[in-house]
Amino acid sequence: MKSDACGSRAGYLGYVAHELRNPLSTALWCTELLGSMQAADRGGPRGVKLALTARRAIGRLSRLIEDHLLSERLEAGGVALRVEDLPLAELLAEAAARGAGPAGADVEAPEGLRIQGDRALWARALEALVAAAARGGSRVRAQVLSAPAGVVMMISGSRVGPEDLELPRRGSPSDPSGASLGLVVAGAVAASQGASLAARDGALVLTWPGPRP
Amino acid sequence: MTAGAPPLVLVVDDDPDILEAICEILAMEGYRVAQARHGAEALARVAAERPDLILLDLMMPVMDGVAFAEALRTRHPGGHIPVLVISADANPERAAGGLQARAFLAKPFDLETLLAQVAAATGGPRPRESAASPQA
Fold it and tell me: Minimal Cα distance from B136: which residue of A?
């Protein structure tokens, strides 16, 4: 229903605004404090700590803004896709290396399996999925299966439920790393390239329908 | 307030960077600071340390700001500790839903506003010039 859709949209944008204001506050306050310090003190332990905190907050802010804008542009059909033949095992291994935490990841994918898609977007989406499964320090397990009906990728670790794939709303938990819109981006990337993202039995399941060559 | 000691401010927020930044701001101003990541942790800190002021975020896991304020009133009916609500909601007073607070500050609020509110609530350190230089 239209009013439900508007309410959901407003709730989502309220969540995004809330997520942006926290790191924005940190960055503003830390830089203001640094500006109020004597030059010599800025190089001391307190100055260095403030600078690092500001840097972390700006990085988090940047990630949130990029994720939000990308998901909006994908939804509006405003991203020019560069579709090419992609080696899925290689893409997944690279995403696991970037997105898994210190606990690491086990990746199992048939060599030679390829998908059609935009490399940069899939790299970002897969990293977000691995990072979501790695929350709380979980070790990630990623497995790809090829079947006549299509390719299925399962990523498990920290439990992910169907509710986690809904648009976050005001009151949803924050993510201090700035990754709180990662699943939103991954869902938008999948939808823009003919794939689907779901949560099943606590795992993230990405499906590319159709027969493989 | 402990005799002779600066006022103790308890900062309650689930965002570690916000906690770190506000505690640093208050410490540089000359306050003693304690911190908690959610309402339940804050209740324990109140019982152990009896702060002079609480800076309270609203949206937090485990126990949010509104639930904390209710629990605080129930557990310490006679001992009023002033609360300043600090929230990333654009309208913290509305988001607080009737929570009684000394003031409601929307992030990112001005540091001078925060420090003026904290000083007024605690009678603590000012002027700003001396507080601007870092202390060990």
Answer: A46
Q: How many CB pairs under 8 A join A and B?
A: 77
Residue A21: closest CA among B39, B108, B3:
B108
Q: What is the pLDDT of residues B41-94, one digit of tens each?
A: 999 999 999 999 999 999 888 999 999 999 998 887 667 899 999 999 888 888
> From CA A2, how far away is CA B41, in angstroms rounded?
41
Q: At what angle do helices A88-99 and A119-133 cross, to 10 degrees?
A: 50
Dist. CA A32–CA A50, nearest whole Å: 10
Rounded to the nearest angstrom, the minimum Cα separation between B134 and chain A is 7
Put simply, the answer to whether B89 touches A36 (Cβ < 8 Å) is no
Amino acid residing at B114: L
Residues 6+ apart with CB under 8 A from A178: A23, A59, A60, A61, A62, A63, A64
For residue B6, report the phi and psi dihedrals to the nearest 5 degrees: -65, 160
Instruction: Indicate the pTM of the whole model.
Output: 0.84
Partnered with residue A205 across adjacent β-strands are: A154, A198
- From the list A14, A25, A38, the residue facing B107 with the nearest CB is A25
How far is Cα A57 from Cα A4, in angstroms, rounded to an integer?
A: 33
Asked if ipTM goes beyond 0.90, one says: no
Q: Which of the residue ranges A39-48, B21-30, B123-132 would you say has the lowest mean pLDDT? A: B123-132
Does the beta-carbon distance from B15 to A171 stay under 8 Å? no
Length of chain A: 213
Long-range contacts for B67-70 (Cβ within 8 Å, ≥24 apart)? B67/B39, B68/B12, B68/B38, B68/B39, B68/B40, B68/B42, B68/B43, B69/B99, B69/B100, B69/B101
- Give the gap in angstroms from C-alpha B77 to the nearest C-alpha of chain A: 28
User: Any CB–CB contact under 8 A between A61 and chain B?
Assistant: no
Q: Is B48 on the interface with A (CB under 8 A)?
A: no
